[in-house]
Amino acid sequence: MPERILVIAAHADDEALGCGGTIARHLAQGDTVHLVFMADGVGSRRGDDLAAERHARDTARDRALAALGVASWVSFGLADNQMDALPLLDVVQPLERAIAAFDPHVVYSHHAGDLNIDHRITHQAVMTACRPLPGRTLREILAFEVPSSTEWAPAGLPPFVPDVFVDITATWPAKRAALDAYADELRPAPHARSLPAIEALATWRGHSVGLAKAEAFMLQRRIVR
Description:
Layout: E1 4-9, H1 14-28, E2 32-39, H2 50-68, E3 72-78, H3 88-102, E4 106-110, H4 117-129, E5 140-144, E6 164-167, H5 172-181, H6 195-207, E7 214-222
Parallel strand pairs: 1-2, 1-4, 2-3, 4-5
Antiparallel strand pairs: 5-7, 6-7
Helix pairs in contact: 1-5, 2-5, 3-4
């Protein structure tokens, strides 16, 4: 049976970095995928023309989602790297409405221990909005890793210890095309958010479980009915 998959990302590019191959795999399997972007991704920058940067980021997002095959998404447009300044309720309530409207079977989102504050607030909001209430369709929540945030977290935050691995060997080209769309957000090697590093991570995650390429996740909740 086709499933409804919801990906909740703090910023446009996190979806491609964290689970782009898995998104493309779900779509290839006939599942329905919807994305929620929490923050605008550029508001904290010090460029001379934020409007131009926002337009460029939106254009990159549209190209990346087209590369993955995603046609359904919404952006809340919260201030970049300032989500911790908002009452959690102001973050949770629009997310609850989006979740109720889409009624997902599976949710993918950020890890609780990422260095980026928007990632951590997104994780907290997701777990709050996805409280396991009676009658919910949602059966599984998975946390993804984002290069240059997850592995950069200090020791006091919870570590990312993956226990779910998704084979993205066949969908790596789609993930790579989405990453190419976000070229302005990537960095030259040997940066952790460079294309060689991202491919090396996919290869390592795959080889660690006997696959050519994989994306890794931490299971946050699974309900077996």
